[in-house]
Amino acid sequence: MQRTRMTVAVLVGVAVATVSGCVTVNPGGPGAPPPAPNRPVQEVEPQIGQPPAREALDALPETSPSASAPAYPDPASASGPRVEPPGGAPPAAYPPPRPPVTLPTLTVSGLPRVPASGKGVCALGRGIGGWSATSPQSKICDQAYGH
Description:
This protein has a domain at 119-147. Helix content is 32%, strand content 0%. The chain contains 4 helices and no strands. α3 (119-127) runs antiparallel to α4. The mean pLDDT is 74.
């Protein structure tokens, strides 16, 4: 009986503290008067808008391209000394392939050998997992591991 009374007293105390914390009001006088509405200030600088693109292009003067020199020179007619690779042979596109590396197999003594088949997995699921032999889990395991 004592434990129940203590629990109720603690819960009521927490509830009162929570509610009183939510409704506290800071004492103070009336707030400052609301600020006067701002009037729009007239811009003194002229505001220039962009014209539409078509009108801007039409306003440009007509110029014809000059026939003096092409914009990009032809690479075949470019002047300058040609540099040949040393030895006169073209460079190899790819390095020769490396021979395959064989890694040694390691055996550690003292560790049990694990069979390569997964037959024990389904038995483990039935034993520890509580699968029945006709359960969907057991059937999926048998299909996956070929029991």
